Every structure is written in structure tokens, then in C-alpha cells.
Amino acid sequence: MSRLQELLEKVEVTTAFIGKKAKDGIDFLKLNRDYSKEKNKLSLLYEELGRIAYQIHNQETNDVNEIENLCTQIKEQIKVVDQLEHEMNNLRDENHTIQEDHGTKETHIPENIPKPEAGKDGFLLLKFCPECQIGNNPEAKQCISCGHIF
Ligand SMILES: [Zn+2]
């Protein structure tokens, strides 16, 4: 009887542990999905920006306000993506620092968030992907949208 009790307790603990792991996994997946979605939105904003820059260059339009507007949206979107990346790092840290809780926490500054750069003429320089036509950071080695290697 006491043996059975012992066994049952073990099973309970194991189940609780698996349950927690699974929940963390789901949280992470959800975050990861949101992150991809928001990053994709950012890509679309860059694409739109590239399109307008191209039109202005070809004198099809001179809607400079639209560029201003898009730059503001991109700035906000970068904040959203940064925040999600931060949350993902926190969740990752939580899982890895259960034993060593007293160490100083490193702050992760994301480096892979693309930011547009302006050329001499004030237009934004973007590297367009031949696969999906998304405007990427000029330094990008890989397309942020489809993963094409430049
Ligand atoms: Zn691409």
C-alpha cells in the first residue's frame, strides 16, 4: 500500500512537471508566432517604403508625407518586435536559470532588427529580395521575409 502511494506520488510529480514544460512550450510557440507575425508586418512596411521611394525616384509621386508616416510606423513596429524578442529571451532565461537565480542578468540587445539607412540623397537604401521583393537592410545577408541568401 505504501509502495503504491509512493508510486502514485511520483506519477503526480512527473505529470505536473511535464504539464509545466508543455505550458512553457506553448507560451513560447505562441510568442514565436506573434514574433514572426510582427516581423512580417515590419517587412511589409519596409516593402511599402521601398515602393514609395522607387515611385518618388521615378517622379511618379512626390508624397514625402507618406514616407514620414511609414518611418513612424516602422519605428513603432520595431519597438513591438523588440518587445516580443525581449519576452522570448525572458522565457528562455527562466527555463535555464532555475538553479542559478542569483547571478547578474545579462540584457539581450537584439542586433538582428533591420533598420533602414538613408543614402546621400536622403532616400532610404534597401536591398530588395529577388525572390519575394521585400526591402531588406542594405547590410542584410539573408532576406528577413523568405530567408533568401543574398
Ligand atoms: Zn525574400
TrEMBL record:
The top of its lineage is: Bacteria, Bacillati, Bacillota, Clostridia, Lachnospirales
Q: What is the protein name for this chain?
A: Zinc ribbon domain-containing protein
* Region Disordered: start-end pairs: 96-115
Q: Which organism is it from?
A: Defluviitalea saccharophila
Where is this chain compositionally biased, Basic and acidic residues type? Answer: 96-109
Which domain of life does the UniProt lineage start with?
Answer: Bacteria
